[in-house]
Write a sequence for this structure.
C-alpha cells in the first residue's frame, strides 16, 4: 500500500511585508491571474511558502489575489495590517502636529526659556 503524505497546514509559512522592486514580476503575474491591474501606490504582499498569493494597496485598499488558491484569510490579514499601518501614520501625524504647535494657545510649542508657569485653577 502507498500512502500519500499530506502536509500539515500548521507548518505553512505566511509572510506579510511591504512589496518592493524585487516583487514586481510576482505582482504582475498575480494581477494577471486575477484578471486585474496591479494596484497603484505602496503595496503590502502576502507570501505563502515564498510564493505571492495576495496584495493590497495601502492608498486605495484595492486587492489582487490568486484565484487558484484559498486567499480569503490572506486578504483579511492584509486588510487588517493595512489599517494598522494607516492608523500608525495618522497617529504620527497628530503627534507631529502637537509637537510643532499646530494648535493655538497653551498647547503650542514655546521657544526655550519662554514656558508659561502652570496655573492651577482653584474653586471659589
Amino acid at each position: 500500500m502507498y500512502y500519500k503524505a499530506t502536509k500539515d497546514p500548521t507548518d505553512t509559512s505566511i509572510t506579510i511585508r511591504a512589496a518592493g522592486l524585487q516583487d514586481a514580476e510576482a505582482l504582475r503575474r498575480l494581477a494577471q491571474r486575477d484578471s486585474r491591474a496591479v494596484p497603484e501606490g505602496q503595496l503590502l504582499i502576502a507570501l505563502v511558502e515564498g510564493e505571492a498569493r495576495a496584495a493590497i494597496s495601502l492608498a486605495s485598499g484595492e486587492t489582487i489575489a490568486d484565484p487558484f488558491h484559498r486567499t480569503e484569510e490572506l486578504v483579511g490579514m492584509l486588510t487588517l495590517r493595512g489599517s494598522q499601518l494607516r492608523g500608525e501614520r495618522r497617529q504620527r501625524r497628530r503627534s507631529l502636529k502637537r509637537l510643532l504647535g499646530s494648535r493655538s494657545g497653551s498647547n503650542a510649542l514655546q521657544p526655550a526659556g519662554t514656558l508659561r508657569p502652570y496655573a492651577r485653577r482653584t474653586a471659589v
Notes: Confidence is low (pLDDT under 50) at residues 103-115. Helices lie at 24-33, 72-100. The beta strands are 14-18, 43-48, 51-57, 63-65. The chain has one domain: 11-102.
